[in-house]
Amino acid sequence: MQKKLLVQLLFIFSLVFIVKYTMFPNSSLGIGISKGEINLIPFKSLGNPISPDFFVNVGGNILLFIPFGFILPVKYPKISRLQTVTLVGLWLSILIECIQLTMPNRTTDINDVMLNTLGTYIGFRLFKKGCRLKP
Fold first, then answer.
1. Residue 57's closest CA among 114, 6, 133?
2. Alpha helix (H) ranges present in the chain?
3. What sign does the dihedral 96-92-70-73 (CA atoms) show?
């Protein structure tokens, strides 16, 4: 019973974490401070790879979805295939970007979708690696 509660709390935390950083501006991280643009060209808006903004953008988008990719197959054991978990992460990211279309000062960016999906993929791979380490 405690394990189910822990899994439920971790799943909710991962979703709250995603919503907090995708829907609400955070000026200290430079998140949500934009003109409200749309970028549909992959890699266009990533910026200079040696700048701190690049690492915040790329690393942040990937790290944001790693917990989701890790906990999703724990919460829903029937969703335990790489393709399925990655597809759920892709659809969640697309949903977020579509919602951001309606919000002022939020940029809808194909790079966010790609990086968030990559984060989900990495989270799932870490989950699978952890399962192999269990005695």
1. 114
2. 2-23, 52-75, 82-101, 110-133
3. positive
